[in-house]
Amino acid sequence: MNRKTLVLPAVVGLLAPALAACGGSDGSGDGGDAIVVGTTDRFVATKDAPAPLDPAYAYDVGSWNVLRQTVQTLMVQPRGEGDPVPEAAESCGFTDSGNERYACKLRPDLKFSNGDPITAADVKFSVDRALAIQADSGVFALLSTVDTVETKGDNEVIFHLKTADATFPYKLSTPVAGIVNPDNYKKNKLRDGFQVDGSGPYTLQAEEKDGELVKAVFTRNPHYQGALKVNNEKIDMVSYEDADAMGDALDKGDIDVMSRTMTPEQINDLAAADGDVDLVEMPGLEIRYLAFNTDAPTVRSKAVRQAMAQLVNRDELVSAVYGSQAEPLYSLVPASITGHSNAFFNKYGDPSVAKAKALLEDAGVTTPVKLTLHYTTDHYGAATKKEFEQLREQLNGSGLFDVGVEGAPWDTFVPAERSGAYDVFGMGWFPDFPDADSFVAPFLDKDNFLKSPYANSEIRNTLIPESRREADRLAASDSLNQIQDIVAEDVPVLPLWQGKQYVAAHDDITGVAYALNSSSTLQLWELGRGVSG
């Protein structure tokens, strides 16, 4: 067949059949070789981050995609779009009109992969553990509205919230709320290394080399009971050094599926070529942005950050680096998410050197402003370097800045960023769940994952709580728009673009259209083997 690009509409989830609450296989994956999935995600255990796959620590898209296959949550995001549905739970819901009491009843006969029964006490242990450890990744902040966790018997758990939180069902679908076995996870200590034990659709066998996970072997969990239909018996996920090596492996047939991160050039080549590989384009909510250490002398002045916002030409940046694979972004909240506004465009309009110069002159800032933009070399794809070179050219071309760029591998970049070593640094964000709260709170609330010194009391104390009270997310738009306007004024972060997402697979692999959801959640259980055509 011809190699082609399949473009999935944003409403794909509305067309998908309902999730079957069977936790079994339809037989399409029975027998045969494992389906092999390639990725450029790296999983490294270091002195600074010795527990990369502990649910109480992990907070990046790669590690979450390992945990989503293995550690079960009470709720799960459906195939496409829509509200989360029960997973380990048989039913869940708010039991009060104020969205402050949330109760779940567990499915009967739930078991961990080793056969141990799961009770409400295990759920309580897992959530209490994440909140008690408070890992420096900041992932525990997703559960910040939890006050106490109560159990009733062995199969009912009740979450008492500090404040109303209509987004709480989404948060229970994230790995930080995953159910872990107290026999394998200590209450007040992270679990080092790459071992994961849970009750999800797969078990994990980790193959590591020199402190790095090079291959994750997912085998269907015979004890799994949940909402997901598992269409295969075994998945091997292999980590490659870069996109070129991953692409070569696909061409040779060493892997069946290629996921993140492909280069823009690879995507264009796959779309144009003939062969037995299908390229599937999916809607995505990935965003990229610059973050500022607002205490750093170089960018402490709001005028410096505003001038950068006034100068960056997103259209030019996207066109030069990503082409049609990305779109300019003028807010932390991306387009297609309820509550989105173009706050940065509304404030700054088109790029203007004259306006940027006036901002700096009015604040008494001496030009050119000298600073360094930091980026990670191996986490968001090879195009990141070119992106930062484009940003450097734009800023330096104004004559108002003297900018350098420096790259570092992810396992070096993250601890440096968290320690405040970088004044300005580039990050990507894959939402925890498809709601505006997931693009606001992780950046601006207390205990935010960036460790940002920026704090706005109106956002934290009034606007975020207001937005969470609204079960109708459209009704939260006023509060969310005010947050975005404040961010455009103060510029603690500078949004750049939002991207599409792609999966490439040999044409005998089925279920590829559902292999990723809009939040970049890898859904390996959807994959199966069919007949090449």
UniProtKB/TrEMBL annotation:
Residues annotated as transmembrane: none
One Pfam match: SBP_bac_5
Example of a GO MF term: peptide transmembrane transporter activity
Subcellular location: Cell envelope
Keyword tags: Signal, Transport
Signal sequence segment: 1-20
PROSITE patterns from the UniProt entry: PROKAR_LIPOPROTEIN (PS51257)
Primary location: other
GO CC aspect terms: ATP-binding cassette (ABC) transporter complex; cell envelope; periplasmic space
SUPFAM superfamilies to which the protein is assigned, alphabetical: Periplasmic binding protein-like II (SSF53850)
UniProt record, GO biological process: peptide transport
Domain called Solute-binding protein family: residue spans: 84-448
Family: Belongs to the bacterial solute-binding protein 5 family.
Name of the featured protein: Peptide-binding protein
Species for this entry: Streptomyces chromofuscus
